[in-house]
Design brief:
- The protein has no helices and 14 strands.
- It is mainly β.
- It starts with 10 loop residues before the first strand and ends with a strand.
- The chain has one domain.
- The strands form 3 sheets. The protein has a 6-stranded antiparallel β-barrel with strand order 3-4-5-6-12-11. A 5-stranded mixed beta sheet has the order 8-9-2-1-14, with no helix packed on it.
Length: 213
């Protein structure tokens, strides 16, 4: 049974636009966006992640992953038990290794896995062997930490990312819960449930449209 659609994750609208060089993704919820975060357990293994996610039909190669390696998704996540953005200091305290609890952005590649209760996982990889973006944090999953900051205000989550050639590409919007494997093994990061799927069935009906000047 999926988690209850709490107001902070009750997605009611999603849009995406592009000017040809940058793409802006927006998600609107019924409550206060970003007001709900996972509880800290004090360990990476078994820890939870809350996320606002835009699965897309953009090829993963567009942002530095292996071509055709899964479903490329843009994710805004919070997880107080680990920091997966070692190149960036989101909270501005001088320590780039303690920012996981703050909302931050990732590109991830999702693939199906029946071992995950939600049926999907972030693709397991071997750093140094699999094709990964230069800003990937070194975890053994297809996850990039490019450092674009989300804007969370009121009921809205907004993120602008540099990605070209995405006009007319399909997308969806999902509020999801993920969990790290309790023993740190593959599948390392599973989707364990969805609070809300905008389309209802992950059919990716949304279309990235050209931004009017």
């Amino acid at each position: 049974m999926p988690p209850t659609a709490l107001p902070a994750f009750d997605v009611v609208r999603a849009t995406a636009t592009t000017d040809g060089r940058l793409a802006t993704f927006i998600m609107e919820v019924t409550g206060t966006a970003g007001s709900q975060k996972p509880k800290k357990i004090g360990d990476l293994k078994g820890s939870s992640v809350d996320a606002y996610v835009w699965p897309t039909k953009i090829d993963p190669a567009a942002v530095g992953f292996a071509k055709g390696s899964g479903t490329l998704a843009l994710a805004i996540t919070a997880h107080p038990d680990f920091d997966d953005t070692p190149l960036f200091d989101e909270n501005g305290d001088g320590d780039p290794n303690n920012d996981g609890a703050d909302w931050h952005s990732h590109w991830v590649v999702l693939v199906e896995d029946k071992a995950c209760t939600g049926g999907l996982k972030v693709r397991d990889v071997s750093p140094g062997q699999d094709v990964l973006p230069k800003t990937a944090p070194g975890l053994p999953i297809a996850l990039d930490s490019p450092g674009m900051s989300p804007v969370i205000k009121g009921a809205t989550v907004t993120i602008t990312v540099p990605v070209e050639g995405v006009e007319h590409v399909n997308f969806d919007a999902v509020a999801a819960k993920l969990q790290v494997h309790e023993q740190g093994k593959a599948p390392l990061l599973c989707v364990t449930g969805t609070y809300k799927v905008t389309s209802g069935n992950l059919s990716l009906p949304g279309v990235i449209v050209r931004k009017e000047k």
